[in-house]
Amino acid sequence: MEEELRPNGTQFEGKEEYVKEVFTEIASYYDEMNELMSMGMIKRWHRFMMKKAGDIDSKICLDIGTGTGEIAFLLAKNVGKDGKVYGVDITPRMLEHADMKMKEQDIPRPIIFEVGDALSLRFQDGYFDVVTSGYMLRNVTDIQKAINEMFRVLKPGGRAVVAELSKPNNRFIRFFYNLYMNHRVYWLGKKYGGGKKINGKEPAYEWLTSSIEGFPHGKEMTDKFKKAGFEDAQYFVKSLGAVNIYLGIKK
């Protein structure tokens, strides 16, 4: 039976506040859990994103939903001393961890981390050469609006490179994927978070796995990039379908 996709992902009343609480709760162990959830593949996904970003030496870049800054740090290492990187996130606690980690990073220029809303970025039209985002779109209340904002703040010729989790299309692979997500990841989340409910709703890592259910991916997502104005939009399937990397180029 094919998975039923929801055009705007999973939405419910109070989602924005719930998401803030989720990421406030998990900020201290977010990086470690990501490494475990991705079976050690997350750094490869991020390196692939940098390849798709192209030559960003001396460029101005924005990482939306930056969390603890992992993608932003890669951008900073590639833009050099004449480039500039911003990282925005709605959760102050995640940005506190990003700031702490930045002290240990070998980057030529500090990243500007700030609280910001992916649906209403404070930046002017056409300011950035590259916009990145990792695993953020499932957490917004309006996917299309978030992609529209990426397009708006990019310069002509600019690139949006976005990573999102997805479910493998191959039924055989999906069987083992579901076993891993529903048992191993669930156990890890309970171990780290204690199974604590957030705002009376799902515990943090139950949300992070259940939010993948029905989430638009592949062509459905590139259609949203095209609707935003990206004439050139494509996606790359990684780790047997566990993640998709999207590339949109603003003409």
Anisotropy-based shape: globular
| Separate helix tally | 9
**Helical amount among residues, as a percent range?**
40-55%
Oligomeric grouping of the chains: single chain
GO molecular function, one term: demethylmenaquinone methyltransferase activity
Pfam families: Ubie_methyltran
Family: Belongs to the class I-like SAM-binding methyltransferase superfamily. MenG/UbiE family.
Keywords: Menaquinone biosynthesis, Methyltransferase, S-adenosyl-L-methionine, Transferase
Helix and strand arrangement:
Layout lengths: L14 H12 L3 H8 L4 H12 L6 E5 L5 H10 L4 E6 L2 H11 L9 E4 L12 E7 L8 H11 E12 L5 H23 L3 E2 L2 E3 H7 L8 H10 L3 E7 L4 E7 L2
Parallel strand pairs: 1-2, 1-4, 2-3, 4-5
Antiparallel strand pairs: 5-9, 6-7, 8-9
Describe this structure as you would to a colleague:
The chain is an alpha/beta fold. The protein has a single domain (15-249), classed as Vaccinia Virus protein VP39 (Rossmann fold, 3-Layer(aba) Sandwich). The protein is 41% helix and 21% strand. A hairpin with a 4-residue loop joins strand 8 and strand 9. Helix 6 crosses helix 9 (219-228) and helix 7 packs antiparallel against helix 8. The termini are far apart. The model has no long low-confidence stretch (mean pLDDT 91).
Provide a short characterization of the protein structure.
The chain is α/β, with parallel strands linked by helices and 251 residues long. The protein is built from nine helices and nine strands.
Provide key terms for this protein.
single chain, 251 residues, alpha/beta, Rossmann fold, seven-stranded mixed beta sheet, two-stranded antiparallel ribbon
